[in-house]
C-alpha cells in the first residue's frame, strides 16, 4: 500500500467505482444456474433424456454440467477480488485501489497517458464502446477501462490533469531545441516528424478521426496517420500542434525558441 498524506491530495474532483463486476456476476449466475435448472427439469421429467448416448453425447453433457458451473465459479471468484476497486481523482493526483491494493499517483510523477477507445460493428450493427487508458509513471502503469463508472468523465480528467504537467515539459524541451517523441511521431522547432520526414508548422494540422490521430497538409492530404493507442500523450500532441500552427500562420516563428511559450 502506497502511503500518502491528506495534504498531498488537494481538492477531491471525482470518484469512479469498478462496476463491471455486476455484469460478470450475472454471467456467472447463468453459467452455474443453467445446468442446475436443467438437472431439476430432467429429474421431474419435464425434459426427458433420449436413448442414444454415444461418447460425444456423454462428453458434451459432462462439459455442460461440470465445465460451465466451474467456469461460473471461477468468474465469480475473480470479480470478487475487485469488489472494492475504485479511482479517486484529486487536484494533485489520484488514488487507485486495484484488486484490493491502494496506490497514490501524483500528477507530477506521470510520464504519459495512452488512450484507446474502440467500438466493434457486427453485421452492420454498432457494438459496445470499450475504453482503455494507461497511465505510466515511475511506479509502473495503472490501467483504467470501461469497467469504471463514468469512464468518460474519468478520461476527461485524466487528459486535463496530465496535460497540465506534460505540456510544460514538452515546451521546455522544445525551447532547448530538443526533439520530443510521441511514439511514431515527434515534435521539434522545425515541425512534426514522421518516418524521417518533417512537416513545417505552417502546413500542419492534427486531429482525431475514428480511433486515429491524423496529421494533414493544407490540401487535406494525410502526412501521417497513426492509431491513437500508438501515440502516448496524443491529447498533448494535438493541443501543441494547434498552438504552434496558429503561431506560425499568425506571423510568429516557431523555430525561434524565444517564441515558444511555457504557459
Layout of helices and strands:
Elements (H helix, E strand, L loop, with lengths): L5 H4 L2 E6 L2 H24 L11 H26 L5 E5 L2 E6 L2 E6 L3 E13 L2 E13 L2 E6 L5 H25 L4 E3 L2 E3 L3 E4 L2 E4 L4 E5 L2 E5 L5 E6 L6 H16 L14
Antiparallel strand pairs: 1-2, 2-3, 3-4, 5-6, 6-7, 8-9, 9-10, 10-11, 12-13, 13-14
Task: Note the main attributes of this structure.
263 residues; PH-domain like; 3 domains; 5 helices
Tally of alpha and pi helices: 5
What is the strand content? 25-35%
Could you give the count of β-strands? Answer: 14
Low-pLDDT ranges = none
Can you summarize the main beta sheet? 4 strands, antiparallel
Share of helical residues:
25-40%
The shape is: elongated
The neighbouring-strand order within the major sheet is 1-2-3-4
The radius of gyration is 26 Å
CATH class of the largest domain: Mainly Beta
- Could you tell me the CATH topology label of the largest domain: PH-domain like
Number of domains: 3
Termini separation comes to: 35 Å
Helix/sheet category? alpha+beta
Return the string of H and E elements: HEHHEEEEEEHEEEEEEEH
- Indicate the CATH architecture of the largest domain: Roll
Mean of all residue-level pLDDT scores: 84
What do these coordinates show?
This protein has 263 residues and is an alpha+beta fold. The chain has 3 domains: 6-17 and 83-162, PH-domain like (Roll), CATH 2.30.29; 20-80; 176-259, PH-domain like, CATH 2.30.29. 36% of the residues lie in helices and 32% in strands. The protein has 5 helices and 14 strands. The chain has helices spanning 6-9, 20-43, 55-80, 151-175, 234-249, and strands at 12-17, 86-90, 93-98, 101-106, 110-122, 125-137, 140-145, 180-182, 185-187, 191-194, 197-200, 205-209, 212-216, 222-227. Strand 12 (205-209) and strand 13 (212-216) form a beta hairpin. It is elongated. It starts with 5 loop residues before the first helix and ends in a 14-residue tail after the last helix.
Amino acid at each position: 500500500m502506497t502511503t500518502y498524506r491528506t495534504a498531498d491530495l488537494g481538492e477531491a474532483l471525482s470518484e469512479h467505482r469498478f462496476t463491471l463486476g455486476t455484469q460478470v456476476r450475472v454471467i456467472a449466475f447463468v453459467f452455474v444456474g443453467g445446468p442446475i435448472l436443467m438437472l431439476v427439469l430432467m429429474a421431474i421429467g419435464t425434459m426427458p433424456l433420449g436413448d442414444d448416448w454415444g461418447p460425444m453425447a456423454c462428453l458434451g453433457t459432462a462439459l455442460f454440467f461440470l465445465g460451465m458451473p466451474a467456469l461460473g465459479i471461477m468468474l465469480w471468484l475473480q470479480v470478487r477480488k475487485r469488489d472494492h476497486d475504485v479511482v479517486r481523482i484529486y487536484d494533485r493526483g489520484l488514488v487507485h485501489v486495484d484488486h484490493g491494493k491502494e496506490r497514490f499517483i501524483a500528477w507530477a510523477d506521470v510520464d504519459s497517458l495512452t488512450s484507446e477507445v474502440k467500438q466493434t460493428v457486427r453485421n452492420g450493427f454498432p457494438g459496445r464502446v470499450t475504453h482503455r487508458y494507461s497511465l505510466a509513471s515511475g511506479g509502473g502503469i495503472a490501467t483504467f477501462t470501461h469497467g469504471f463508472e463514468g469512464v468518460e468523465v474519468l478520461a476527461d480528467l485524466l487528459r486535463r490533469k496530465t496535460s497540465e504537467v506534460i505540456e510544460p515539459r514538452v515546451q521546455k524541451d522544445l525551447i532547448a531545441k530538443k526533439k520530443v517523441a510521441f511514439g511514431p511521431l515527434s515534435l521539434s522547432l522545425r515541425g512534426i516528424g514522421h518516418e524521417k520526414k518533417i512537416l513545417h508548422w505552417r502546413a500542419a494540422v492534427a486531429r482525431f478521426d475514428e480511433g486515429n490521430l491524423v496529421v494533414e497538409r493544407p490540401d487535406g492530404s494525410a502526412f501521417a496517420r497513426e492509431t491513437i493507442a500508438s501515440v502516448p500523450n496524443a491529447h498533448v500532441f494535438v493541443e501543441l500542434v494547434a498552438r504552434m500552427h496558429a503561431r506560425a500562420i499568425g506571423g510568429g516563428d516557431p523555430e525561434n525558441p524565444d517564441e515558444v511559450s511555457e504557459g
